[in-house]
Amino acid sequence: MPARPSKRASSSSKQAAGAARSGRSVRAMRERPKLAFPLAIVAICVIGVAVVAFSRNERVAAIESAEPPRTGDHWHAAYGIYVCDSFLAPLPDSGTDPDGIHTHGDGLMHVHPFGAGAAGFNARVGVWAETVGMQLGDGSITLPDGTSYSNGSIECDGEPANVYLIRWDNAYNPDSVGEVFTSNFGDVRYKSDDAAFVFAVVPESKLDQVPRPDSISQLSAPVDEAGATTTDPTATGSPTASLPLEGLTDSTITVDPSTESTVVTESTVATDSTVAGQG
């Protein structure tokens, strides 16, 4: 007959089992901090990076919006779309304006930013173009009706035409020198009130003959200001001084987007010439 285990042996077995369970529990408790500590460090780092990024973005936005035009300013710029030898009709009012840069179908760009996203360095032609439904590419423009122009897509008097954007910071001053942009049209900034812009589709040889927009006559009484009267922006009689760009032959005009300065890469450039954006 097999011997029955003594009570002492049974008790010892129970104690050993209990000690084993207790040991496992202690080991588990000791192992938990090893996992929790690095997780806490990671969480702190993530939160820290997010706070720094948010603060930086806030500072950048404040700096960018500190430059004019500021929120609350109300600027106007005359514009035109010049193809070969004549201006197209002004683009219509789109009826929507999320940012405060738009047109009223009067041949003017109305610039009164609603917030930092369209103020200061963010006040750019691309904001206006998006509002009116115009697409701007590198060396191309597409009008709201789908008509598209790109470098070499059409000819003017037998010469291939390129697409340019010209900006005069003072539309009224006949001595104001226009800056010529050949790409990054949407990044071109609004730098002053009463400016003028022309999207020109012309051969390079005709670039110096591009006039300022007819809608300059509208700048004296914009339709969104009290007491303004509406006139036909396509009517003649407004300043049409041509772009001061002389003696340029077989050259490439480019723009440094960081400074918006015009650079002429010479192949054959006549001496004593005046280049748009310089002089």
Description of the structure:
There is one protein chain. With 279 residues, the protein is α+β, with helices and mostly antiparallel strands. The protein has 2 domains: 1-66; 70-269, no CATH class. Helix content is 24%, strand content 22%. It has 2 helices and 16 strands. The strands form 5 sheets. Strands 1, 2, 3, 4, 10, 11 and 12 form a 7-stranded mixed β-sheet that branches. The protein has a 3-stranded antiparallel β-sheet with strand order 5-6-7. The longest helix is centred in the first third of the chain and has 60 residues, at 7-66. The radius of gyration is 34 Å and the shape is globular. Residues 59-65 and 227-279 have low confidence and may be disordered.
Low-confidence stretches: 59-65, 227-279
> What is the rounded distance between the termini?
120 Å
Q: What is the string of helix and strand elements? A: HEEEEHEEEEEEEEEEEE
Helix segment count?
2
Give the tally of structural domains.
Answer: 2
User: Residue-averaged pLDDT, rounded?
Assistant: 75
Spatial extent as radius of gyration: 34 Å
Q: Biggest sheet, open or closed, and with what strands and sense?
A: 7 strands, mixed
Broad shape: globular
Helicity, in percent? 10-25%
Q: Could you tell me the strand content as a percent range?
A: 15-25%
Number of strands: 16
Based on helices, strands and strand pairing, what is the structural class?
A: alpha+beta
